Automatic annotation (TrEMBL):
Organism: Hypericibacter adhaerens
Ancillary SecYEG translocon subunit/Cell division coordinator CpoB TPR domain: residues covered: 20-135
Protein name (Swiss-Prot/TrEMBL): Membrane protein
InterPro entries in UniProt: SecYEG/CpoB_TPR
UniProt keyword terms in alphabetical order: Membrane, Transmembrane, Transmembrane helix
Domain of life per record: Bacteria
Statement: the UniProt record of this protein carries the keyword Transmembrane: yes
Transmembrane segments: 24-45
Amino acid sequence: MADIFKEVEEDLRRERLEQLWQRYGRAVIAVAVLIVLGTAGSVAWHRYQQHRQSTLAEQYGAAIAETDPSTGDLAKADAALANIADAGGGYGALARLEQAAVKAKAGDLDGAAKIYDTLASDSAAPPALRDLAKLLKVMRLVDSGDPAALTDSLAPLMAPESPWRFTATELTAILALKSGDQKRATDLFTQLADDQAAPSSLRARAAEMAAALKG
């Protein structure tokens, strides 16, 4: 008798499964297919990204080699870096910095400044590199640019949390000196010379400048 009940229970379970399959079988297959396709797509995208980053790294290395003034070709380096910059991302940001440096080496300071401005305003670029672009622009234009405008652009970089605060402060002191504001220049150089967190070489330069201005 127990065997009969067991067979009946199995038949009922089989019938219930068949009914469920008839109702939901296609949906189950569709979901399974989507899962398989999604997993395959994710793996393929990850591999593509890895290959893309590897390719960009090789192109970046080759472009940097062309910036060597003794063995490279600056025009070729400029074109290669421009292509990498268009790709965006970390390598794109680094390529913009190098491209600006190449233009500066060639004497095109305006071209370099435009590239720095482009990177500084690129919300997709890492904040530290965007701020570095602002800093490097001032360094390139410190002798030819408008001291007041350059000083204003450095102000955010002098914040305590900025990784570029020491160099930004030094440049601001130099710009103050160029503007004829010797007192502010002296104060900033003295501040740097006394800041134990600043790099030792920068502190030494600042101490020399402060001493010369006071003397």
